[in-house]
């Protein structure tokens, strides 16, 4: 199981390596994955609550000096072999076939939400807008805390936001860096990027 999930070996590879029928291996993998999801989903992906959001926001305030932040979001194209009869559905702007791994992480680089499987032709923004998280955010079903003043101030009350790059559209709860290379001294330039699956914030 560890080899299947960790190295990407297919069932036929495991069939020859362990001398077990590939149909038996398929059943083992299916049962183990189902058990992992059943018993660990609440621990790894707990239900969103106001208390959890405030805990995440406090982490961003302490680590990045960015208040009212609920997470950093971005997409990652995972290279794949072109599926049969898929035409250009999975062909991305980087000129290879992929599925999109969309994720939101907290200040400790821990995933708080993932969406996997969107065809590679879709942009990060459209992937985000198609996922269940976005629909819940738009419908105010995420139990996001109400607006509150930034630390050290009394007004105005500012919304809690998720941070993304220029690919994402601005909404009430999504913020992105200033566009352009030249900024005046009154603007704060935040640079968000990710590498090797980790998300970073440059202040």
TrEMBL record:
What is any one of the record's Gene Ontology cellular component terms? Answer: nucleus
User: What are the protein's GO molecular function terms?
Assistant: hydrolase activity; metal ion binding; nuclease activity
Compartments it resides in? Nucleus
Whether Nucleus counts among this entry's keywords is yes
What's the chief localization of this chain? nucleus
Domain named DDE Tnp4: residues? 73-179
This protein's UniProt keywords: Hydrolase, Metal-binding, Nuclease, Nucleus
Its cofactor is: a divalent metal cation
Where on the tree of life does the source sit, at the highest rank? Eukaryota
Family per similarity comment: Belongs to the HARBI1 family.
Q: What is this protein called?
A: DDE Tnp4 domain-containing protein
User: What is the species of this protein?
Assistant: Rhamnusium bicolor
């Amino acid at each position: 199981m560890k080899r299947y999930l960790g190295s990407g070996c297919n069932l036929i590879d495991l069939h020859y390596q362990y001398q077990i029928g590939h149909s038996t291996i398929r059943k083992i993998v299916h049962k183990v994955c189902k058990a992992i999801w059943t018993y660990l989903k609440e621990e790894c992906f707990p239900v969103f609550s106001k208390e959890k959001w405030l805990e995440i926001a406090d982490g961003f305030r302490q680590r990045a000096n960015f208040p009212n932040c609920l997470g950093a979001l971005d997409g990652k194209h995972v290279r794949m072999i072109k599926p049969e009869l898929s035409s250009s559905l999975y062909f991305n702007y980087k000129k290879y076939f992929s599925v999109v791994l969309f994720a939101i992480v907290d200040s400790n680089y821990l995933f708080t939400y993932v969406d996997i499987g969107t065809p590679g032709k879709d942009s990060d923004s459209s992937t985000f807008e198609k996922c269940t998280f976005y629909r819940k955010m738009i419908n105010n079903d995420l139990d996001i805390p109400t607006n509150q003043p930034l630390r050290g101030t009394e007004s105005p009350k500012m919304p809690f936001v998720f941070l993304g790059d220029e690919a994402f559209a601005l909404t009430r709860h999504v913020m992105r860096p200033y566009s352009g290379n030249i900024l005046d001294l009154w603007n704060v330039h935040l640079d968000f990027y990710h590498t090797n699956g980790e998300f970073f914030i440059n202040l």
